[in-house]
Amino acid sequence: MDKKDIAITLLKEKITQGELCKLRIRSRWSMYPLFEKQGALKIRSVLIKDLCLGDIVVYKKDQDLIAHRYIRITKTQSGKAIITKGDSAASFDPYVVLEEELLGKVISFTAADKTISYENVFWRSINALLAKLSLWEASCYILAARSSSSKNPASACLINILIFARKAGEGVRIILIRLLVLWSRIVF
Question: Which of 15, 21, 111, 150 could form a disulfide with 39 if both were Cys (CB 3.0 to 4.6 A apart)?
Answer without folding.
Answer: 111
